[in-house]
Amino acid sequence: MDVQKILVVDDDEHLRMVLQETLESGGYKVKIASSGNEALSILKEEAFDLLITDLMMPGIKGVELVGRAKEIYPNIGAMVITAYGTIDRAVESMQKGAFDFITKPFSISQIESRVKRFFEFQALQKENVVLKKKLERFRLTQKIVGESPVIKEVMDHIAIVANSDATVFIRGESGTGKELVAQAIHDRSDRADKPFRKINCAAVPETLFESTLFGHEKGAFSGAYRQQKGIFEECHEGTILLDEISEIPHSLQAKLLRVLQEMKITRVGSTEEIPVDVRIIATTNRNIDELINSGKFREDLFFRLNVFPITLPPLRDRKEDIPLIIDHFLSTLKDKYHFTEKKISPSLMKQIMEYDWPGNVRQLQHMLERAILFSGKEVTITEKHFKFEEEGRRNSAKGGNGSLEVMPLAEMERKLIFAALKKTNNHRTRAAELLGITVRTLRNKLHEYEEQGLTDEEL
Questions:
Q1: What angle do CA 18, 21, 27 make, to 5 degrees?
Q2: In a shared domain, residues 112 and 239
Q3: pTM of the model
Q4: Residues 400 and 439 placed together within one structural domain of the fold
Q5: Are 117 and 65 in a shared domain?
Q6: Of 60, 167, 277, 379, which has the fewest beta carbons less than 10 angstroms from its beta carbon?
C-alpha cells in the first residue's frame, strides 16, 4: 500500500515542525512549506493526498491556496487551520474544496484524529468509485449479445483466459466489439478491482508515445514541467488495452517488446528501471500478417502479444444474432430516447437480415438509434425510418466484405436536427423532445448553423 502524503503549509516555523513530527510518527510522508508560493512550487513537482494549510499567511492566503491546489490535483484533500475562526471564512474554505476547518489553539490529538478521519472518508470515496465501476462494467459486459456458435466460442475463450495473466490478442473488423471483449476479460479476472486503461495507439502522436506509455521526468523534453507517470505505472496490477496495436510506431516496437519481456519501464529522461505488473490485451482491425510480411510490424512483438488469440466474427457471419442484438439495443435505449416500446416491422427485419453490415454491430446500433429518432412516437420502426448505407447493399448483393463510408458526426447531427424539425413542423419543443436534448441546446445548435450559413437544403 502506498504511503499517504501530506503537505503542511504554515508561516509559523514551530507549528510546521510540530505538525511534521506528529504526522510522520503516524506513518505519513510529510513535506512542509512556509508560504503559499512555496507550496504551489512543491505541488507542481509532486502529488499529495492531503494539504494542511494555515488560513492567514503573507502572500497567498490559505483559501486561495486550496483553490489553486484543487486546480492542479482535483482529488487532493484540504484542511484549513487558523486562529481566525469565523463562519464566513469556514464557509469560503469549504466552497473552495476544504474537507475540514480547525481553529487554533488545538491539541495534537485533534490533528491526528482529523487527519485519520479524512483518510477514512477518502477510503470510503474510493470504495464507492470501485463499486460504481463494477456496476458499470457489469452493464458494459452485458452488451456481448448472441447465441450463435461463433459468439459462444468467443465467450468460452473469455472464460478460459480471464483468470490467467496471459497476454491476449484480439482481431476483428471495426465495430465487432473488441473493446467489450477486452473489458469482459478484465472484469472476470483477479485484476477486476484494479485499473483498466485503454490507449488508442492510432491517436497518440509518435513524439508523445513513449512518454504516454512509460512516463517522463521533469525537463525530459520541452513542456515537461513536472514528473509524470505513464500508463504502465498508473495501471500497476491492472490491465492495459493497447487498442489498434498495429498503429504503434515501428521505432517504438522494440522498446515495447523489451518492456513486455522484462516488465520494467524507464521513464523518458531517466535511466532508472521501474518494475511494473500489468496484463496486456492488444487489438487490431488490420491484417497483421501482411504488416509483418511488409516489415511494418515486428514478428517477435507479434509472437509476444499473440499468446492467447481471439478472433471476433463480423456481423454478416452471425446474422442469426441480429434479432437478439436489436432487442438488446431497444431495451437499453429506452431511457435515452424516452420511449416505452419499439419494434421492427417484419418487412424491415427481412431487409436488415439481408444487409451486409460492413460496419458490424456498431453500425447496426447507430442506424437503429437514428431510426428511433425518425420514428418519433410511432411504435413500429419501418423502412421509412431506417436508412441503409448503399455500400452494404452492394456488398450484400455480391457477397463482398467492403467497408463503411462513415458520415462525419457533425453532419449526421445536423441532418437529425433538421429532420426532427421537419417532422414536427418546426416546433422546437417537440423537436427537442424527439432528439432527447433540451430546447436551449437545440436553439444553440441552430444558431451555430445560422452563423455557418447552413440550411437543411445544404444537408
A1: 140
A2: no
A3: 0.61
A4: yes
A5: yes
A6: 379
